[in-house]
Amino acid sequence: MEGIKRAVSDLIGVPRALETEVVFDQSEFVKSAIKNLVKEGILGLCLTGILILIFLGNLRATVAVFLSIPLSALAAFMVISMGGGTINSMVLGGLALAFSRLIDNSVVVLENIVRHMELGEDPETAAIVGGEEVAVPVLAATLATAVVFFPVTFLSGVSRFLFGGLALAVVISLFASYFVAMTVVPLFCARFIRIKHAGTGKVPENAGRKRSILARFGTWFHAAFNQHFDALLESFGKVIHQLLDRPRTVLIAIIAACVACFALMPLVGMSYFPRTDPAQFVINVKATPGTRVEVTEEKVARLEQLIRRIIPAEDLGIIVSNIGSTPDLSAIYTSNSGTHTAFVQVGLKKGHRVGSFEAMGRVRKAIAEEMPELAVYLQSGGLVDAVLNAGLPAPIDVQFTGSDQEAAHAYAKRIMKLARAIPGIGDMLIPQDIDAPSLRINVNRADASVLGLSAREVFGNMITALVSNGMIQPNYWIDPKTGYDYLLSVQYPEDLLKDMLDLKSIPLRTVNLDAVTSITRSEGPTEVDHYQLQRVINLYVSTEKEALGPVAAAFERLIAENPPPKGVRVHIRGLISVMNSSFASFGAGLLLAILLVYLILVAQFRSFRDPGLILLAVLPGLSGVILGLLLTNTTLNIMSLMGVIMMVGIVVTDSILIVEFTTRLLGEGMNLREAVVSGVKVRLRPILLTSLATLFGLLPIALNLGAGSEAYAPLARAIIGGVGVSMVVTVLLVPCAIYLCHVGKSRVVT
Fold first, then answer.
1. Percent of the chain whose pLDDT exceeds 70
2. Class of 279-379 in CATH
3. In CATH terms, is domain 437-524 a member of 3.30.420.10?
4. pTM greater than 0.85 (yes/no)
5. Burial 29-65 (b: 16+ CB within 10 A, else e)
6. Which SS3 state, helix, strand or coil, does residue 510 take?
7. Nearest Cα to Cα of residue 399 among 575, 570, 579, 577
8. CA-CA distance, 164 to 184, in Å (whole number)?
């Protein structure tokens, strides 16, 4: 867009008085979206950094964790660049959403190394032993998170283009973060981190140095935090002991509660993509067929005044109206089909307080009250909606096909009338008219041939007189000075053709038009549309809210209850069909992702039982997604479904840590009950740290703080809901499941 602006500002050979101005610029929306996304990602990183600093109490340890972010992002950019890809908003959005997950590997490794230092080991030994202990679970967690993106390869159409780059960026950065966690973090800890050894009296080498007030406050705060956290661990251990007295009851109760949450699914709306505010909207206007263009212009002027009254002056940027159409090549650039149609583009100012869809709702209500004679259809006209709708103006396009267009049009009008009772309907419009006033001109070929005239010559003269010769015999003149070519066309002055008598008087050589033609009044279509060679009548349908699913389902029921006449077929197309196919792909992809995670864990743990225990974390995660979407009034769309897939890879990390460490303690010969309690207590700190880091890192995106972030908010909310519930439930559910699987067995689990 910037290149176009520079080129237009440097035109050669144009009058000096000619000024160019960009009226509508969707690149501003893209730039604003990327800017806000980066801002929210940085804010999330700051919140995550504060959280890690609170848990670890060491600034150098926090720096060690954050080393994984620039290194992992750089690796993703390098691979994408080598593959010929571009850094777009979806790639940046994927990285911003994955930032909190990228540090999880480093957090787990660092926390385990610090734990060994607190037990009295020197930094070098702690770095080696601590890294080796968690190498397998961290690898399993990384593979489990990465493999859930594999089903993205099965998507098609717009969905594949949307999520292909996002999935690639996240997967590459995840593997890079594992490499950083297993190499850079242990080296950094061995060289730069010194921790006071618990119970040994040993202190760091710099303990004798005079420290600042801030450093002393940090030491005091961390000591107080650890004291309270240790008390929390003791209380948590007692709770686990009590739950292990009735593990089967606890397990059944938690699973039943999670399954019950699925009963809330019908309350969650369904849409294909979140609504974004493009800072503009378009109003398609249609008056009674045959309305003169002057009358249509007056109605559009009234509509413009209504818009100026409804939208505050500080928010309204520009109004551009396009009225009627001309019968030449320029007609392909307008949606107007006659003198009775128009479309009005409304642009909002940068930083507007009233959103596009809120303004559309106000204008829609005012038109219905003050100008009911107009048929209108409001659409955002934004870049995102245009791409998602594949160029169609409506997310729901009900198409009526058949050889009898009058029957199809009448049935379409009947369905539109009945559909007004459907809750959630926004606008409905049938763009085609079949009863527009028209003239039928028949050439008497016998009389014309006597005069030496052909039908082609008769109509050629008539078309030239009415709309110029530009359509039948275009002429061009080249300016010898500038070299520019100009289209030359000839037609009668408009004031010479005012009525039927003037039309009949158009000269054809030695006679007038009426000498060889018969002219009668009739009715005909203003436009003829086809879909796969079949003539079609369209019913454009939009929704007041974001959810498409309930409205589309209501339309299907309405058509089933009112079947079409013989010879007329009905098809519902548009964004709703893309949504249904994408949801089916995502559903199959989610099942495939869970299966792939299970197979990877089987290979890692050499067991068919332990991966099943690990995947128990997915059930509370799914219930948390439903609760999160319902509480935030967010629809289930492809972005929130991608959040579900990402959530599956994240929540299994918590149960991997518990199952792996408990299995190791059992292998060392520890009593089953003590192994289960000790395993979950030791891993509670990294579980809380990684899960809370994910929640805090995604919080700014979920809050939808700026324009353009609406697209990523559902994804972040789905992850926050799933991870938040799973974090609480997994540490209770998995220990009970482990205890039930091992209780009564005398053999040592290896």
1. 95
2. alpha beta
3. no
4. no
5. bbebbbebbeebbebbbebbbebbbebbbbeebbebb
6. coil
7. 570
8. 29
